[in-house]
Amino acid sequence: MALNLDGIIGDSPALAEVFKVLGKVAPTDSTVLVTGESGTGKELVVRALHQNSVRRKKAFVPINCGAIPRELLESELFGHEKGAFTHAIRSRPGRFELADGGTIFLDEIGEMDLSLQVKILRALQEKEIERVGGTSIMKVDVRVVAATNRELEEEVKAGRFREDLYYRLNVIPLHLPPLRERGNDIITLANHFLCGHCDSKDRKIMKLSSKAEQMLMTYSWPGNVRELENFMERLSILCDGNVIMPEDLPAKIFEDIGEKPLLKVEEIVPMRSAGFDWPVLKDMSDKDLKLKEFLEAIEGRLLAEALEKADGVKNKAAELVGIKRTTLIEKLKKRGLL
Predict the structure, then answer these.
(1) I need a surface site. Which of 104, 135, 228, 284 has the fewest CB within 10 A?
(2) d(CA 316, CA 307)
(3) What is the separation, in whole angstroms, between the first and last Cα of the chain?
(4) Do the Cβ atoms of 220 and 258 come closer than 8 Å?
């Protein structure tokens, strides 16, 4: 049966190895530990594990162990009884109960407190849990998949992670390669994200020049797939033409690959008359943009210039363009400038 890999894009040899392991382990109930750098798409792989398992018609319940305060995480995982603590006005099931019959995904498990790791170990070994403030034991039938961007073996040595839990989780290790090791997947993903963002903004589909592609392939991508998607969204908003040239790429790419940033033509030879020139229709047609795209491009340039002149101080930048700080932040986030 063909694997359901919805959302996972690429056919590099490094990714093919992931698919090979995924195809073997997905139909089983074995516990899987997915490792990889932040932004590599670990949750997509975990969802593929669930979708290709016999549990696919049951619940898939994710929880980010690093995003929930330590004192609340136990209740989120195992539920609580009425009156178990302040504000516990009613009984509430936890994620393990909600995932009964399905899959629970413990993301960023390396962030979990040691005291809670003991209870996770019991849930894995005995298939039973106890609500906070409860007195009865509940049996749960869940498949546990965990993910982390930490080196758990090092965490075990440092005493920050239980050795017995590590070995219980690491039944089937599945390592997701960083983007820099995925070769042509970089360009495949870049074009995918670029098309998607252009489509959502109702602008003509943009393309990467061959030199821009070469630079993207050389860049180290410390933020992995997440960083690539953010770059493509930014280019879909700020790039004037429909072909992305090297000079359109962020300065950090030039710095990373050891090249000097290129100046755009208008930065080399400012075409400015003695007075102020309002944009005309020809300016818009020359850039092959519609009115909305043209105005967004102008606004984006002004915001970027204001932020640069203000040395990154958002209050000052907001004053320069005459808008509120909150409005400025919203516009910067929309354009990926934060």
Answers:
(1) 135
(2) 8
(3) 44
(4) no
DSSP type of residue 109: G
Number of Cα atoms under 13 Å in the Cβ half of residue 222: 4
At 175, which helix (H) or strand (E)? Answer: strand 172-175
pTM of the model: 0.73
User: What is the reported pLDDT for 83?
Assistant: 83
Q: Which two tokens stand for residue 80?
A: 């609580």
Q: From residue 78, give the alpha-carbon distance in Å to each of 16, 130, 170.
A: 36, 6, 22
The CA–CA distances, whole Å, from 142 to 10, 170, 285 equal 30, 16, 58
**The tokens of 287 are what?**
């850039």
Cα angle 59, 123, 83; round to 5: 85
- Helix H or strand E encompassing 63: strand 60-64
Distances in whole angstroms, Cα of residue 29 to Cα of each of 33, 50, 155: 13, 10, 26
The token duo for 155 is 């965490």
| Contact call for residues 107 and 69 (beta carbons, < 8 A) | no
| DSSP three-state, residue 129 | strand
Cα–Cα distance list, 114 to 243, 257, 325 (Å)? 52, 41, 41
Write out the H or E segment, with its range, that includes residue 191.
helix 185-200
182 phi, psi to nearest 5 deg: -105, 15
User: Measured between alpha carbons, how far is 237 from 54 in angstroms, rounded to an integer?
Assistant: 43
pLDDT of residue 267: 47
117 neighbors 76 (Cβ within 8 angstroms): no
Provide the residue type at 148 as one letter: T
pLDDT number for residue 338: 64
Q: How many CB atoms lie within 10 A of CB 221?
A: 23
Q: How many helices (H) and strands (E) does the chain have?
A: 16, 9
Q: Within the chain, which residues score under 70 in pLDDT? A: 1, 262-276, 336-338
**DSSP character for 310?**
T
Give the H/E segment covering residue 328.
Answer: helix 325-334
Instruction: Give the amino acid at 308.
Output: E
Strand 138-139 to strand 128-129: parallel, antiparallel, or no bridges (unpaired)?
antiparallel
